[in-house]
């Protein structure tokens, strides 16, 4: 895990692969809870029996936005940002879903620091990301996420 405590340490990482998170298993329980939270109960996500017979995947699949929502959690396994007042999810750019994540698939986040700007003391970090699926050639998604960091002092 990389530890960053200020803008200068962050700046040294621009262009670098920052690492990958541990594997996270997508369970049916997690999919169902996400469906409840977002009111998206489409059968392709929440009905395992119907998915076995009617889905081209023969399985339920995770919501695309569920996989996106894992970014902050998995990111914190890769880099520890110390000395912060606040961190804000600022944006997602050029995101493409390449393939679905089936129930019980394992996923992990791969991150490269694509860019860094100091906006009068607020640090805008752009990360090139991929959500890899274990034993699959194509990622679940790829794109860029943008975080804003407010360091103390």
From TrEMBL:
The organism's place on the tree of life at top rank: Bacteria
MaoC-like domain: residues covered: 10-126
Pfam families: MaoC_dehydratas
InterPro entries: HotDog_dom_sf, MaoC-like_dom, NodN-like
SUPFAM superfamilies: Thioesterase/thiol ester dehydrase-isomerase
Alphabetized PANTHER family for the sequence: MAOC-LIKE DEHYDRATASE DOMAIN-CONTAINING PROTEIN
Name of protein: MaoC family dehydratase
């Amino acid at each position: 895990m990389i530890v960053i405590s200020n803008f200068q340490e962050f700046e040294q990482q621009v262009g670098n692969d920052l690492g990958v998170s541990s594997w996270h298993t997508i369970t049916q329980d997690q999919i169902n809870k996400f469906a409840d939270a977002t009111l998206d109960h489409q059968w392709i996500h929440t009905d395992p029996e119907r998915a076995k017979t009617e889905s081209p995947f023969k399985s339920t699949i995770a919501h695309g936005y569920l996989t996106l929502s894992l970014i902050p959690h998995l990111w914190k396994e890769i880099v520890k940002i110390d000395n912060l007042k606040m961190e804000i999810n600022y944006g997602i750019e050029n995101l493409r879903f390449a393939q679905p994540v089936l129930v019980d698939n394992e996923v992990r986040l791969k991150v490269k620091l694509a860019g860094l700007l100091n906006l009068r003391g607020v640090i805008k970090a752009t990360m090139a990301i991929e959500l890899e699926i274990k034993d699959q050639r194509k990622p679940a998604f790829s794109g860029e996420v943008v975080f804003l960091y407010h360091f103390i002092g």
